[in-house]
Specification:
It is a single chain. This protein has 431 residues and is an alpha+beta fold. Helix content is 35%, strand content 22%. The protein has 3 domains: 11-97, Phosphorylase Kinase, domain 1 (2-Layer Sandwich), CATH 3.30.200.20; 105-282, Transferase(Phosphotransferase), domain 1; 295-430, Sandwich (Jelly Rolls). The protein has helices spanning 49-52, 58-69, 117-136, 186-189, 196-212, 222-231, 246-255, 267-281, 289-297, 307-316, 367-371, 394-397, 402-430, and strands spanning 11-13, 16-24, 28-35, 41-47, 83-88, 93-97, 139-140, 149-153, 156-159, 166-167, 318-322, 327-329, 334-335, 338-343, 346-350, 353-358, 362-364, 375-376, 380-383, 387-392. The chain starts with 10 loop residues before the first strand and ends with a helix. Mean pLDDT is 87; it is low at 1-8 and 167-177.
């Protein structure tokens, strides 16, 4: 959807006012359109009647379109393109999706246009979360490739095109061999049962290509390609691009294992590994999105927050690396923000007396947020060690979803109650 064709269109499709042609494929057309009910812009995918009537592939095309249409309003994740609305009729149909205007990853697979290594790893990390969520909803995508990973901005991406998806809870007959041959897992080629590990293999091919500018397997014909996918081991990525750590070789070759059990056991295991690899190629003071997300995801009191809400929280914070002995807040100073110690320790002092030590994975200063406005700080907070810290301003938190704010407020309130209970216990012991 990166390239726009400026045409003067006057067309109404359902409740959508078609404005601009965004792209045209073999089976359908994508337009920029306006929802006349809400006034919001959408990407409108339409299918022409002759496609459904095709004597050879019409049934397959209709099945794919129905697949994607069936997901309208069901997949809610920050790294999956939202399907907003869908209508499928006997000889035509349309699907309304959110607009993603940065193009797709296919523009970054050529040797002269490769992304920085750390950006590729961050993109991979975010795809892991999206595909883990999809699998939890009973979905194997089956067509992960650069053209189906859309760019929002920077390393923020959204997975698109679930037309080939295998819906594990569906009663419909679904063709096992859907997908793009270069990115198919060995088990997909062989028509075996597909699990999350098939999409994991496909993502491995995408990451390999983004890192090196080359696909792990190429051949002059389909038969030769299939043979290589089933039997050959690809070249280590570091042999194709200077500066790639050997650890990346190990991770990529594991992703491309011939059998599902040779790959990472879970999406979370892969995500943690990609986050670790990112730290090897980033400057020491950098704070990647993956580190923010992992730090918050580990916090027990945030367990009620969905991954989407954790991402909201991660993006709302002002993250920094704070040197040891730095003063963070002073007693009686006004404040509206609260803080999260992702790594390190913070000393909390009131009236010159130590009242608490805050460790990694804990919040502090949260009374201001619960209060809902400016209030005097009850204590002074100083960094006891080097910190990875996030500060959350009230105005930024109000931009979170209502559900996210509710879950966070409950978590922080429970945190304050626990601290009060501990303080009361200490007082009781002193008596």
């Amino acid at each position: 959807m990166a390239e726009e064709f400026k045409l003067d269109l006057s067309l109404q499709v359902g409740k959508y006012d078609v404005q601009t042609l965004l792209g045209k494929g073999a089976t359908g057309t994508v337009y920029l359109a306006k929802d006349t009910f809400t006034g919001k812009d959408v990407a409108l995918k339409t299918i022409e009647p002759e496609v459904f009537r095709d004597p050879e592939f019409g049934t397959v095309y209709r099945s794919q379109f129905l697949n994607e249409a069936s997901l309208a309003g069901k997949l809610r994740h920050p790294h999956i393109v939202a399907i907003l609305d869908a209508v499928v009729e006997s000889d035509s149909g349309y699907i309304a999706m959110e607009i993603v205007s940065g193009g797709d990853l296919a523009q970054f697979v050529k040797p002269d246009k490769l992304l920085p290594i750390e950006d590729v790893l961050q993109i991979g990390f975010k795809c892991c979360g999206a595909l883990d969520y999809a699998f939890s909803q009973g979905i194997v995508h089956r067509d992960i490739k650069p053209a189906n990973i859309m760019i929002v901005q920077g390393t923020d991406v959204k997975i698109a095109d679930f037309g080939a998806a295998f819906l594990r809870k569906s009663q419909a007959v679904q063709t096992a061999a859907m997908g793009s041959p270069f990115y198919m897992s060995p088990e997909q080629i062989e028509g075996k049962e597909l699990t999350l590990h098939s999409d994991m293999y496909s993502l491995g091919v995408v990451l390999y290509e983004l890192l090196t500018g080359k696909r792990p397997f190429v051949a002059d014909n389909l038969e030769g390609l299939v043979k290589k996918i089933l039997t050959e081991v690809p070249a280590p990525p570091s042999s194709l691009r200077k500066g790639l750590p050997k650890d990346i070789d190990m991770a990529m070759l594991k992703l491309l294992g011939k059998r599902p059990e040779h790959r990472f056991a879970t999406w979370n295991e892969l995500a943690i590994e990609l986050s670790r690899l990112g730290a090897l190629v980033l400057p020491p003071d950098a704070i990647p999105d993956s580190e923010k997300f992992v730090s918050l995801k580990k916090v027990a009191i945030l367990s009620a927050l969905s991954d989407a809400e954790i991402w909201e929280l991660a993006r709302a914070g002002k993250w920094s690396r704070v040197p040891r002995a730095t003063n963070i807040v002073k007693e009686n100073d006004p404040g509206t923000s609260f803080f999260f110690a992702a790594k390190g320790e913070v000393k909390i002092v009131r009236g010159g007396r130590l009242i608490n030590m805050v460790g990694a994975g804990e919040f502090f200063g949260d009374m201001a947020y619960i209060w809902g406005g400016e209030m005097p700080r009850h204590a002074t907070a100083d960094a006891m060690t080097d910190l990875l810290m996030a500060e959350f301003e009230l105005a930024a938190m109000e931009k979170m979803s209502t559900a996210g704010q509710l879950h966070l407020t409950r978590a922080l309130t429970r945190n304050v109650v626990d601290r009060l209970a501990m303080a009361n216990q200490r007082l009781a012991n002193v008596r």
